[in-house]
Amino acid sequence: MKHIISCIASLLLLMLLIPACSEEEIMTFDGRVAGIYLQRNSSYTMDGQGNISSQKYADSTSLSFADSTEEATRIITQLTVKIMGNVVDYDRPFTLKVDEQASTAVRGTNFDFNESDCVIPAGAAQTYVPITIYRTPDLAEDEKKHYIEFYLEDNDFFTVELEQYKDIDDWAATGDTLCGSRYTIIFSEIYTVPFYYEIFGPDYFGDWSVSKEKLINSLMGWTHQDWDNGTVQLGALGYAAQLTHNHLQEAADSGNPILDDDGSYMQLTGSYEVDYSAYE
Question: 36 pairs with which residues across the strands?
Answer without folding.
Answer: 83, 160
